[in-house]
From TrEMBL:
<feature type="transmembrane region" description="Helical">
    <location>
        <begin position="147"/>
        <end position="165"/>
    </location>
</feature>
<keyword id="KW-0812">Transmembrane</keyword>
<dbReference type="InterPro" id="IPR001046">
    <property type="entry name" value="NRAMP_fam"/>
</dbReference>
<feature type="transmembrane region" description="Helical">
    <location>
        <begin position="232"/>
        <end position="252"/>
    </location>
</feature>
<keyword id="KW-1133">Transmembrane helix</keyword>
<dbReference type="GO" id="GO:0016020">
    <property type="term" value="C:membrane"/>
</dbReference>
<dbReference type="Pfam" id="PF01566">
    <property type="entry name" value="Nramp"/>
</dbReference>
<feature type="transmembrane region" description="Helical">
    <location>
        <begin position="81"/>
        <end position="112"/>
    </location>
</feature>
<feature type="transmembrane region" description="Helical">
    <location>
        <begin position="328"/>
        <end position="348"/>
    </location>
</feature>
<protein>
    <submittedName>
        <fullName>Divalent metal cation transporter</fullName>
    </submittedName>
</protein>
<feature type="transmembrane region" description="Helical">
    <location>
        <begin position="118"/>
        <end position="135"/>
    </location>
</feature>
<feature type="transmembrane region" description="Helical">
    <location>
        <begin position="354"/>
        <end position="374"/>
    </location>
</feature>
<feature type="transmembrane region" description="Helical">
    <location>
        <begin position="185"/>
        <end position="211"/>
    </location>
</feature>
<keyword id="KW-0472">Membrane</keyword>
<feature type="transmembrane region" description="Helical">
    <location>
        <begin position="281"/>
        <end position="301"/>
    </location>
</feature>
<feature type="transmembrane region" description="Helical">
    <location>
        <begin position="40"/>
        <end position="60"/>
    </location>
</feature>
<feature type="transmembrane region" description="Helical">
    <location>
        <begin position="394"/>
        <end position="415"/>
    </location>
</feature>
Length: 416
């Protein structure tokens, strides 16, 4: 019991990882997978979570042992590695946040049925979330997300139980599911597995959260405790993906419903179909679960992108003390909010193209990031007793091959 209390008290990086990961990959892709292809989509979801696990685990491992960020680990291996990670971060900085805030703003408008300009709602969210991050800092983020994730988990658990209890929405006896292994199906699999649970470069984010978590603790957790905490968050991420899959399968599979490719419209469709299947009384429950999913993702991603950008700049230009100023994080949060709001205002109509660019870079670079993470934890910075076991190393190589094949096939699909 005392170990359980200690684990709950230490919840931090793993919790933030779960909050950040359960965004569009879960709300849209997992639900859509269940809706279009049925229960069989549980296989690629589990496969992606298992094969990508080592890359994220190494971020926790490296920082827990060395007390340094994974970004510092890249620099120790050579500045070229850091420039690679800086390039990926630059692309993400000006695309991912803008896309997340647009989806969340659209959800807010659609789910709570208000009339407002999406850019204005996004501006309000930027101001509100920036204030929370600057005033509350890491401790508030961690504490608030314990409540948000708890509400989200309970809402999704109740919704999943209800849809399972009610059973499939329609008799699917004569329904013919679309092909999984044709061009459309393969592209969907690439999107689902490529973003499940999230992009591999987020390993650097959990590393920085680990440092912040250690700074808030009276006594630093051991590597074992840090990994246990992360594993709880990682398992929760995978479980919530399966919840969304089951909900999509039970409420949409076999209906022949044409699902929108737009995340905001799709979420509105899903909520509408949920209430048709379960009852109008469940609307608020599902609306809160959907909005909490995206709001928590916005908050954690905004925090992570700000931290990682600041850390990368500090490591690249170490002679510039401005990046270590006591208010540097606050300025970076505001800068990210302003720049991404400008991106929304200026490129809103072409947001899909910007996200496609970020997706392409993330997919193509993922095997390289995985290899860099393995190289960091096998390097001289980590004592032999704390290096990953042979089994985890083997899983890492399998994951690297898996990600490489995905990246190559993705490039081939785009070029043909």
């Amino acid at each position: 019991m005392s170990q359980l209390k200690t684990l709950i008290k230490n919840l931090g990086p793993g919790l933030l990882f779960a909050s950040m990961a359960i965004g569009t990959s879960h709300l849209v892709l997992s639900t859509k997978g269940g809706a279009q292809y049925g229960w069989v989509m549980v296989i690629p979801i589990i496969l992606a979570n298992v094969l990508k696990y080592p890359f994220f685990e190494f971020g926790i491992r490296y920082t827990s042992v060395t007390q340094k960020s994974l970004i510092q680990g890249y620099l120790n291996m050579g500045k070229g590695y850091l420039w690679i990670y800086a390039f990926i971060t630059l692309i993400s900085t000006f695309t991912i946040l803008a896309a997340l805030y647009v989806v969340t703003s659209g959800l807010f408008i659609n789910l709570f049925q208000i009339e407002a300009d999406i850019g204005l709602v996004a501006f309000g969210l930027f101001v509100f979330i920036s204030a929370l991050l600057i005033i509350g800092k890491y401790q508030f983020l961690e504490d608030s997300l314990k409540a948000v994730i708890s509400i989200l988990f309970l809402a999704l658990l109740v919704t999943t139980v209800m849809v399972i209890h009610k059973g499939p929405v329609a008799d699917t006896t004569n329904y013919v599911a679309p092909e999984i292994f044709n061009e459309v199906g393969i592209l969907f699999l690439i999107s689902l597995m490529g973003w499940m649970p999230t992009a591999v470069e987020a390993s650097g984010w959990v590393s920085l959260w680990t440092i912040e978590n250690q700074n808030t603790m009276k006594s630093k957790p051991t590597l074992k405790m840090a990994l246990q905490e992360f594993n709880v968050g990682y398992f929760m991420t995978a479980l919530l993906a399966i919840f969304f899959l089951v909900i999509g399968w039970m409420t949409l599979y076999g209906t022949g419903t044409e699902l929108s490719g737009n995340a905001v419209v799709f979420a509105d469709q899903v909520v509408g179909l949920f209430t048709t299947h379960i009852g109008n009384w469940a609307y608020i429950l599902i609306a809160v679960a959907a909005f909490a999913t995206m709001f928590s993702t916005c908050m954690t991603a905004h925090d992570a992108v700000s931290r990682v950008s600041l850390d990368v700049l500090d490591k690249l230009f170490s002679k510039t003390s401005a990046f270590r100023h006591k208010n540097a994080f606050s300025y970076t949060v505001l800068f990210m909010a302003l720049v991404n709001w400008v991106v929304i205002a200026a490129f809103g109509a072409h947001m899909g193209n910007l996200v496609a660019l970020a997706t392409f870079v993330s997919f193509v670079m993922a095997p390289l990031i995985g290899w860099m993470n393995l190289k960091a934890v096998l390097g001289k910075d980590i004592p032999k007793e704390f290096k990953p076991k042979k089994g985890l190393q083997a899983l890492t190589y399998v994951g690297m091959v898996f990600l490489s094949l995905f990246a190559l096939y993705y490039c081939w699909m785009l070029l043909t």
